[in-house]
Amino acid sequence: MTGLCIHRKRSYQLGIILILAHLIAAGLLWLLTLSWYIQVIMNAILLSSLIFYLRQDVLLTTDNAVIAFTLSDEMICTVITRCGKSLTCNVMDSTFVAPYLTVLNVKPVGNLFACSVVILSDSLNTEEFRQLRVWLRWKWRKID
C-alpha cells in the first residue's frame, strides 16, 4: 500500500450528535440560578458554537474545512481544505480510533495549533472507513 487518500462527505450522524449536545447544554443552562440576560448570552454563545461546528465538521462549507486528506508511507499527512489549500501535517498521538468514530488530530508543520478531523462512519464509504481505522491503529502507531 503506497498511501491512503480519503475524501470526506457530509456527516448527518455528527450533525444530530452536535445538535443534541448543544440542546442539552442549553437546557442545563436554564436550570442554573443565573440572571436571565447571562443565560441568554450563554445560549447565544452555544448557538454560535453549534453553527460553527455544523458548518466546519458536518456540512464542510467553511474555507478551512478538511474535505480530503492523504496518509503516505513516509508518515506524512497532507490535508486539503475546501478553499484548495494543501497543508502538510503530523498525525498526533492523541488521534482516537474506534469502530464507530475516528478523531484525526493533526498539527500542520510550522503551525502552533493543531486541528481535529471528526470522522463518523457515514462520512466515508465503508471500505475507506475500515482502511482508515486499520491504517491509523497499526501503521501510524508510535514505535518506541
In short:
With 144 residues, the chain is α+β, with helices and mostly antiparallel strands. It is built from 3 helices and 7 strands, in the order βααββββββα.
Question: In words, what does this structure look like?
Answer:
- The protein has 144 residues and is of the alpha+beta class.
- The chain folds into two domains: 3-8 and 64-139; 12-58.
- The protein contains three helices and seven strands.
- It has helices at residues 12-31, 36-58, 126-139, and strands at residues 3-7, 66-72, 77-81, 86-91, 96-97, 101-108, 115-120.
- Strands 1, 2, 3, 4, 5, 6 and 7 form a seven-stranded antiparallel β-sheet that branches.
- Strand 5 and strand 6 (101-108) form a beta hairpin.
- Helix 1 packs antiparallel against helix 2.
- It is elongated and about 60 Å long.
- The relative contact order is 0.17.
